């Protein structure tokens, strides 16, 4: 049986987190969203036995975190044999080419720049929701 | 003329005295060589004089010898003549008289020679006069006896001889000649000694001069050697200093690069961190707007049943949208400013890539790209022949593009716009470009301000954030150039750009 994909959101800005969640919901995505506002807690959760036991994952990742860089989390996730299949969507304010390239090099699946303009932001999230609705997240064994 | 010459000669003199006072290799060598030259010249002249003098002395010695011989000849010839006289008196044979005549013939030139010598040297005159007189007297006595004998009065003749007159003449002559001879030989010995002394002196002088020249040569060699050693030492010191300087420059450049990187990084982080809250401001403003619309809809529905308080309607339909509009406009502006800072910091992180640029073509392209604007306002852009440059293409395009855009943007509506792009190479490996317009101009107090971020000058009737010239100055500096503005309000502005002809990067990616 296929389990519902769990969305793990690592975002230190609660406003952003709420906006992202709202827009995801508006796109009719009702998957469970687990929010972490710092990298350490997110990593602890990702590498806990609980998550390994509980089905497929999708990770929404902000790069500017207070305790570490999002790329560190990306590197850990993509370096792990079991977690590396989980799709990672980087959603951040940074639109620096070098940074984007680095994320793709580390194995990020989608890179979205948070637009300041709300309409674009909402549009981007809705597209992400669309993307999530058709995406098949692989099982984590 | 005199006034013109006096300073020059005094200048020459002061230059010369400077040269003399200042210790230097050239001065030392010149002094040594001059000394050696004068020494050699002196020795030469002295040797010449000595040789002349020696020759004169030798001549006089020879002359004295000749006179000595002449005096002896007189004595010997006189003895011969006496012997012949005695023989004739004894035998009466005339053939005995032949040596007598021969002797007379010999005496005459000898006496002439002595006379000549006495004429040259008055100290000899008494001797020569005496010899002359005695010889004459002796011949007179002998002729007398011979004549008596020929006349047959032989007895009278012998009587005359017997009187001893002739013998006295002869003895006196011998004595005089011996005295003369002694005097002469003394003088010859003296002169010979003088000649020898002169010879020794000449040799000694030559030897001493040679020695001195040798000493001077050694001195010169020593001076040169010392100088070369000094140069060598100075060069080594210079090399060491240069090496130190290079290290210092490298350290300073590295420090500056670090500082610059830090500033760029700082601007980057700050602008990112400023953007994150902005996303929220924008996002929740939109949420508020959405909520407002919901309330608006509810009020509209309520209005169909009962009247709603006008201040509520006012708050929802006018105040809220107005507030949201201001928040949104301000946030958008802030976003543009942050993006500008980001762009600036990103420019700073890009590495310039020097290549040879055809600046005339580049400027013409930029002019063509704003053609529709200039045509609309009746303005024209004149691109003169620009010298090529070896620099970063993107930076150069941004700089020229911004300046030409600005020139077009701030033309004076009151007169047809004219923008001239010109340039030339200047001494010292620099290239200067000028973008000149006859636009509205910039007040002097704003000449520095216009290059600052977010600062603008004059009437604020054109769109813009005050970024262009800040970018331009940043780019100009990054490729090692400078930018200045010359402008008069109401007349026009000229932007002066100065770049190194060849952009040389101190290290990959860094021009500071």
TrEMBL record, chain A:
Record keywords, A-Z: Phosphoprotein
InterPro entries, sorted: CheY-like_superfamily (IPR011006), Sig_transdc_resp-reg_receiver (IPR001789), TCS_response_regulator (IPR052893)
Residue span, Response regulatory domain: 6-129
Gene3D superfamilies the UniProt entry points to: 3.40.50.2300
Top-level taxonomic group: Bacteria
Modified residues (4-aspartylphosphate): 62
PANTHER family, per the entry: RESPONSE REGULATOR RCP1 (PTHR44520:SF2), RESPONSE REGULATOR RCP1-RELATED (PTHR44520)
Protein name per UniProt: Response regulator
Origin species: Brevundimonas intermedia
């Amino acid at each position: 049986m296929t389990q519902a994909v769990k969305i793990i959101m690592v975002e230190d800005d609660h406003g952003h987190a709420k906006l992202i969640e709202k827009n995801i919901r508006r796109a009719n995505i009702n998957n469970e969203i687990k929010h972490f506002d710092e990298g350490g807690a997110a990593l602890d959760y990702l590498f806990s036995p609980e998550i390994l036991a509980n089905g497929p994952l999708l990770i929404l990742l902000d790069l500017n975190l207070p305790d570490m860089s999002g790329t560190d989390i990306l590197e850990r996730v993509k370096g792990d044999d079991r977690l590396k299949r989980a799709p990672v969507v980087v959603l951040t304010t940074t639109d620096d080419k070098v940074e984007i390239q680095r994320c793709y090099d580390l194995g990020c699946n989608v890179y979205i720049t948070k637009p300041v303009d709300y309409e674009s932001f909402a549009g981007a999230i809705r597209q992400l929701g669309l993307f999530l609705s058709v995406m098949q997240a692989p099982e984590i064994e | 003329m005199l006034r013109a010459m006096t300073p020059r000669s005094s200048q020459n003199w002061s230059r010369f005295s400077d040269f003399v006072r200042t210790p230097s290799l050239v001065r030392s060598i010149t002094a040594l060589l001059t000394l050696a030259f004068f020494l050699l010249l002196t020795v030469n002249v002295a040797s010449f004089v000595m040789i002349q003098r020696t020759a004169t002395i030798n001549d006089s010695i020879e002359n004295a010898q000749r006179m000595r011989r002449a005096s002896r000849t007189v004595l010997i010839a006189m003895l011969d003549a006496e012997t012949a006289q005695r023989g004739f008196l004894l035998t009466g044979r005339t053939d005995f008289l032949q040596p007598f005549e021969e002797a007379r013939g010999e005496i005459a030139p000898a006496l002439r020679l002595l006379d000549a010598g006495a004429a040259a040297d008055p100290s000899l005159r008494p001797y020569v006069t005496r010899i002359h007189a005695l010889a004459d007297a002796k011949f007179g006595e002998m002729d007398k006896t011979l004549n008596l004998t020929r006349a047959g009065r032989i007895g009278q003749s012998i009587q005359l001889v017997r009187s001893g007159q002739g013998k006295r003449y002869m003895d006196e002559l011998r004595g005089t000649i011996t005295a003369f001879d002694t005097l002469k030989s003394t003088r010859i010995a003296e002169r010979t000694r003088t000649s020898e002394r002169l010879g020794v002196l000449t040799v000694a002088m030559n030897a001493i001069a040679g020695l001195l020249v040798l000493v001077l040569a050694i001195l010169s060699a020593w001076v040169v050697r010392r100088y070369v050693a000094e140069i060598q030492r100075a060069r080594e010191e210079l090399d060491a200093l240069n090496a130190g300087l290079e290290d210092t420059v490298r350290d300073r450049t590295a420090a500056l690069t670090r500082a610059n990187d830090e500033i760029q990084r700082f601007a980057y982080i700050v602008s990112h961190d400023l953007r994150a809250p902005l996303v929220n401001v924008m996002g929740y403003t939109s949420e508020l707007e959405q909520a407002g619309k919901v309330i608006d809809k509810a009020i509209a529905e309520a209005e169909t049943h009962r009247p709603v308080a006008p201040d509520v309607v006012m708050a929802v339909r006018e105040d809220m949208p107005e507030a949201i509009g201001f928040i949104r406009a301000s946030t958008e502006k802030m976003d543009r400013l942050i993006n500008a800072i980001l762009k600036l910091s990103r420019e700073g992180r890009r590495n310039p890539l020097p290549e040879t640029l055809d600046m005339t073509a580049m400027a013409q392209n930029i002019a063509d790209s704003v053609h529709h604007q200039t045509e609309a306002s009746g303005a024209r852009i004149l691109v003169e022949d620009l010298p090529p440059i070896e620099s970063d293409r993107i930076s150069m395009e941004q700089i020229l593009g911004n300046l030409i855009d600005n020139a077009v943007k701030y033309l004076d509506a009151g007169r047809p716009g004219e923008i001239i792009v010109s340039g030339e190479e200047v001494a010292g490996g620099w290239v200067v470009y000028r973008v000149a317009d006859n636009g509205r101009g910039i007040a002097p107090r704003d000449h520095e301000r216009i290059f600052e971020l977010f600062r603008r000058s004059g009437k604020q009737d054109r769109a813009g954030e005050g970024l262009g010239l800040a970018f331009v100055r940043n780019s100009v500096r990054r490729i090692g150039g400078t930018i200045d503005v010359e402008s008069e309000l109401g007349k026009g502005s000229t932007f002066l750009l100065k770049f190194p002809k060849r952009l040389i990067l101190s290290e990959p990616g860094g021009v500071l």
